[in-house]
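Justification of computing resources. Each target in the renewal requires a structure prediction run like the one illustrated here; the chain below, 139 residues long, is used simply to show the kind of job we budget for.
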Amino acid sequence: MKKLLFIIGLVVTISSCTTINKSIKQPFSSIDIRMDDFDLTEQKTANATSITFIGIDFHRLFIKQMGPGSTVSSIPVLGQYLGDATTSYAMYNLLEENDGSDFIFYPQIEKKTTCPILGICLINRVSTVEVKAKLGTFK
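Resulting structure tokens:
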């Protein structure tokens, strides 16, 4: 019996999983944009909150609020930011609340995360993100 458990444990430990990723290099594209090419609004604000339980956001489990694609990079942003799901939801809300805007110009992001159950974020996490940014429209 011990031999059988040892062999099963050894097989599980030695067995492996294979992952194959293929990608293509994106071509270098450079566009010369000047301030005369677009208009900026006053600074706007949007918020988003996500509540995860054991790492799953059940409210947005089947809803993608990140633009036409399914990645954070599908939201048109000029400037760098740390992308996570709640931040992309807040940026999505910013564009949704301001129709006619083409892009977000250098966002300022304030993120607050709390872990209400014993302070352990693995069980339950509440993340609130506030995005402040100017919105741009191409002429």
